[in-house]
Design a protein that fits this description.
Helix content is about 45%, strand content about 15%. It is α+β, with helices and mostly antiparallel strands. A four-stranded antiparallel sheet has the order 1-2-4-3, with helices on both faces. Helix 1 packs across helix 5. It is globular, with a radius of gyration of 18 Å.
Length: about 200
């Protein structure tokens, strides 16, 4: 990818939650995952794992199990039943209507162990950061290749539920979902970004 195309992908990337149903070629999906291998990680451990879902029944099972957990949690937030069902329906549709759903997971292989809790927590945090870097590479690679995508962070609220729904092996911890497909961006709906001057300190 040229520097110009990378800059364009960064500036035009947008979360797209609706797709037109066209299938996404398997080789194209694998090329996107190849881009994640170049993301930075602690000790070059690359502590991310991917579950690629295309089967409608698997998407359905995942969305339903996550919806059950979401309903349980939202009832604690003093929302009306209609509000709760609206949120669950939108989440369900985003997962089941996407041609490809990728669940990004964290593994602790290669994580250094220290005699104190503080450094062990920092080590886990570094591993978690690197999963985010891999997801960003995936999103930018999708944008550069003409695909639309959306990062869903919901699995961090229900990792065990997602793991059971997908029958994942022990130690594979779901952290995020990226939906993929061909769609149409709504440029007008893109949320404005804050000014760099509001976010930067100079010392």
């Amino acid at each position: 990818m040229t520097p110009e195309r990378m800059a364009e992908a960064i500036s035009t990337r947008q979360s797209v939650r609706r797709y037109d149903g066209r299938p996404v070629d398997e080789a194209l999906v694998l090329s996107l995952l190849e881009a994640t291998l170049l993301a930075p990680s602690p000790h070059n451990t690359q502590p991310w794992r991917f579950v690629v879902i295309r089967e409608a029944a698997t998407k359905e099972r995942l969305a339903c199990r996550m919806g059950e957990k979401l309903r349980h949690d939202l009832k604690k937030d003093k929302l009306t039943d209609d509000e709760i069902e609206g949120i669950i329906t939108r989440s369900y549709q985003r997962i089941t209507a996407a041609p490809v759903v990728i669940v990004i997971c964290l593994v602790r292989e290669g994580m250094r162990q220290y005699p104190d809790r503080r450094r062990n927590q920092a080590e886990l945090l570094m591993f978690t950061h690197s999963v985010g870097a891999a997801v960003q590479n995936l999103l930018l690679a999708a944008e550069a290749r003409g695909l639309c995508a959306c990062w869903m962070a919901a699995p961090v609220y229900c990792s065990p539920v997602v793991a059971r729904a997908l029958k994942l092996p022990p130690g594979v911890i779901p952290h995020a979902i990226v939906t993929l497909g061909y769609g149409v961006k709504d440029v007008a709906a893109r949320r404005p970004r804050r000014l760099l001057s509001d976010l930067t300190l100079h010392r």
